[in-house]
Input
Amino acid sequence: MSKSVRNKTIRFTDLDSDLLYDNVLKWFSSLEESIDKIVHWNSIEELKKIPSWTIDLIATDPPYNLSKNYAGNKFSATDNDNYEIRLNEWMKECKRVLKDAWTIYVCCDWKSSIPVFNVLNKHFILKNRITWEREKWRWASTNWKNNIEDVYFAVKDDKAYTFNLDAVKVKKKVIAPYKNSEGEAKDWFTENGENYRMTCPSNIWTDITIPFWSMPENTEHPTQKPEKVMAKMILASSNEGDIVLDPFVWSWTTSVVAKKLWRKFIGIEQEKEYCVVSQHRLNMADLEKSIQWIENWIFLERNTMSSERTKLSKKSNTLINTKKAWITMPQWIFSSPL
Output
């Protein structure tokens, strides 16, 4: 069945898999050769080959403790004790390859959250648990609809790690703008007739749109992470030119975003189908640097989104000035469900 012309979902069957797979590394030979590459192999085996203290940031979305089918490879849920054993096997390698002053983020669902906390707590210093809203618009007739996912933020050295606060501040509308004794704006500014404040980001993220069929980043992967989720982590906890590692690539969101943000990356994935899709997305990133609802590299909260979308919808082919280049604002944002 052919898909609608508005359906931007990336499908493995629509791609030239042989040509794309030619660009994928079949094993890890050296750190230098693996930079900005997909490595098609077992994650734990490849992690063991990466030299110690060479990685600046790890942002990863490991298999949750759920029974899922990933491109024909079935992952079976187990009890928490066994799941912690699985987690420990690769997390101890993550600690070894990370530089002492750097960071790890681990995504999980509510069922996996406790085992992830337990194992991270053995190897790292936990800084925070981020919860983000994963709205799916699906029914749940016998339970509360699951609408959240977690991300644990941990470091190796509590006194020396990167956190670029200004890079992840959120632009919010000011409802009641305050002024100081001189009558000047207090921590807010006016732009196009609206009052805004750049606020510090919290550990509750409600400004995320899940990839859906008309978004160019959408794939058929069952647990794909939005690019914006990974962008927040990468901008906050790394700098341009740093090496970002994801040992569980899946649909390659981490490395695609790292590329868009001028970081180096290494990704490991054991399923050939996902390697092919990932290589396609990396190729797309050469042409399109935009990330959902980040305007001029400023994060927008939902009320601000609506205001900005109204302004943008009055213009055709709106251009936004990115840090490095001019790009066309993608048309799918105008119909993005909020």
Notes: The chain is about 25% helix and 25% strand. Confidence is low (pLDDT under 50) at residues 312-338. The longest helix spans residues 80-97.
